[in-house]
Amino acid sequence: MSRSLLYVGVVAYFALFFLAPIGGVYVEALRGVPVQVVLERVHRVLTSARTMRIVGFTTGQAALSAAAAVIAAMPLAYMVSHYSFPGKRLAYSLSLVPFVLPSIIVVVCMISFYGKSGLLNSILGTDFNLVYNFRGIVLAHVFYNFSLAIRIISTAWRSIDRRFAEAAESLGERPLGLFRRVTLPLLAPAIVSAFALIFIYCFLSFGIILVFGGVRFSTIEVAIYQETYVNLDLISAAVYSTLQLVLSVGFLALASRAIVASRVARSGGERGLPPLAAASSAGRIFMTAYAVVAIVFVLGPILTMFARALTNADGAFSLEGFRQLLVPGAADRNVEGILRSSIPGVIWRSIAIAVGSGTLIFLLAGALALSLRGQRRPAFESFLQMPIAMSFVTVSLGLRFVWGATVPPALLVVLGQFFIGFPLVFRILRTGVDELGDGLVRSAEILGASRWAVFRDVEVPLLRRTLLNGYAYALALPFADLTVVLAAGRGRIATFPVAIYRLIGFRSFDLALALAVIYVLICLGLFLVIDATSMHAQEPRHDTA
């Protein structure tokens, strides 16, 4: 009965704060338009060559970006899941920072590092154009989603029972065959999950495409924006939104089937990890070289942003941007007037909203993941993943249309941000819970343990890393949100992304960079605490004879 009530409650929440707002936008778009006109517009959009090109490009760039992110993450996922090394917690936390950067800051970082006048070309003495083209789109998407693939795959890789490999080795299996016949099938669900989630994020990409793609490239999300705000054609925008939703849900359904089909019985748990020095010489050289490249790839754009924030126009070290931002009256601009808030207010408001949204996401996703353990409900799970497939411009405007008059803006933002993080967090927790298996839980129940005791003493300790990993993402995604805060919050709420956006809009780029540095440092501190907690006492010292 409690499980049924949980499912009914989740469906009701989705109906009230996701489906109803979407319906409200469609009603607004179709109000007063004759049916014949609507049908003609729908037919024109669905049969046009432009739509075919847009769908083909959207799918192609998303698939390539997702595949590149997964392939690039595999060596580091292996390194993180099999070895301990100095700075591991810091590196693991740093890897998540790009995923939670607002898109406008990512654009600035990528241009500063990879642009024609960027740091990389300056160091190499080259003149490569790596941003304002298709390469720039894929590069930015990999930069954004690299850490997501690392965390999903490394968590699954670490949980594989070593006895599978030992049995294969005792039968004479070579390393390559061991990976192909044993490890890869066991990792397949996690790899497919990572690919599917990154594919959807790239499929719905907007800011990166708009800046780096220009007029040559257009995704469905960009087409929705163009029809809504440029062509003022809400009907065509609604058709593109529906097409995007159908395709995204279809891709997620196919991915769910692939995960189920590739799932292999597995068991495992936390184990002590040997130091990196225990690897072979060739393995150490390869992993060290790959880690250096990955560090440059992730930190290069971010450190370039830091450098620009910490230097003046003459290239000398300066904290003037931070002083003007943090010291009242120090700036020659009215910072509080631009932001419509004080800087401490921006910081605490951002943290409070992220904690509220993240905790709601985490609790509901965790409850559903535990209740669905051992069950296969593809239709229900596809329904739960549906928010990731919808334009959040549409959802946020719908929330404002339907609930704006009765729900306070801050609460409306929390309710809307739930859908930003829920699909990803649910998928992470669902995968971790399924990999736990039922053996220990059933043994505890047979010995007379209550359901609460099983949850507290068996499930939580075994799922500790997965739970904290999920909570990190549940906090991170609302923390970086701009769309819901602006559209549903009606411009009354100033969080970090909104404040950075407003500073750039008022041509206070120096202050925007300084605030972005503070944002990154807070994110890094948050993830360091979570990752240190998740790894604490789970990697005992590896003793050698």
CATH architecture of the largest domain: Orthogonal Bundle
CATH superfamily of the largest domain, by name, is: MetI-like
Strand content: under 5%
- CATH C-level name of the largest domain: Mainly Alpha
**Which residue ranges are poorly predicted, with pLDDT under 50 across at least 5 consecutive positions?**
537-545
Distance between the termini: 55 Å
How many strands appear in the DSSP assignment?
0
Mean pLDDT: 80
Shape, please?
globular
Strand count, sense and barrel status of the largest sheet are: none
Class from helix and strand fractions:
mainly alpha
What value does the Rg take, in angstroms?
24 Å
Summarize the structure in words.
The chain has helices at residues 2-30, 35-47, 49-82, 88-94, 103-114, 119-124, 134-158, 162-170, 175-203, 207-213, 220-230, 234-262, 281-309, 320-326, 335-339, 343-371, 378-384, 392-403, 409-436, 439-446, 451-462, 464-479, 483-488, 496-505, 509-535. It is globular, with a radius of gyration of 24 Å. Helix 3 packs across helix 9 (175-203) and helix 8 runs antiparallel to helix 9 (175-203). It is an all-alpha fold. The protein folds into 2 domains: 1-32 and 324-540, MetI-like fold (Orthogonal Bundle), CATH 1.10.3720.10; 47-309, MetI-like (MetI-like fold, Orthogonal Bundle), CATH 1.10.3720.10.
